[in-house]
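ingest -> validate -> predict -> emit
validate: passed (alphabet ok, no gaps, 220 aa)
predict: started
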Amino acid sequence: MKIVTEAPEEQEESLFEAPPMAEQERMVEAILFATAEPITTRELEARMPHGCDAAEALVYLRKRYEGRGVQVMKVGDAWAIRTAADLGFLMQKETVETRKLSRAAIETLAIIAYHQPVTRAEIEEIRGVSVSRGTVDQLLELEWIRFGRRKMTPGRPVTFVVTQSFLDHFGLENARDLPGLKELRAAGLLENRPPPGTLPGPETDVEDESEEGQSELFED
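emit:
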C-alpha cells in the first residue's frame, strides 16, 4: 500500500495563500469606507492578508462603482471613496448660527407671547422702559414674531404676535402653554420695573441689551 504525503513546502504555501479576488475587493472596500483620509495601495496591503494584491482589487472595485452615487477615486498616489462629482451639491454644508437673546429681547418676546396681539406701547407699559427697534428687528429676523392686525384705536397701531416657528422651536402647541407673567417674574424673566413717568434709575430708562442673565426657556 502506497501512502502519498504532501510536501512540507506545499503545506506552508497553502497556509499563506491569498484570499479570492472577490474577497480582496470586499476588504479594500471596507478599508476605504472606514478611512477618512486617502490611503495608498501599500497601506491597504499592509492591512490585508499576506499575498493580497490591492492594486488589482482596486481595478475591480473602481469598475463596480462606476455610475453610482459614490466612486472609488485616486487622490494623488492614494485612493478614497468619494461622492460622485455631479452629486456634490447634495453635500453642501449648512451651519446654524447660535445667537443668544438679550434680556430686553427675552422680556419683549415673553410679553408678546402672553398678551398677543400687543402693540409696542403696551409692551413698553408692561416692561416700564421703551422697546428699541433693534430688539423688535431681532425677533422679526428670527421669525419668532410677526406683525398682526392693526388695533382699532386712535392711530391704528400695529400689533405683534408670535409665529408658528416660535411655537415649534419651544415645543409648544399654542401660546397658552406659556407661563403667566407672575411665573415669568418669579423666574427672573421679567423685572419689576417702575411704571413710565417715575424718576428714572440707573436701569429704568435704558433698555438692557446685555446677554447676561439668560433664561434657558428663551435661550436660542
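The domain at 103-186 is CATH 1.10.10.10 (Arc Repressor Mutant, subunit A).
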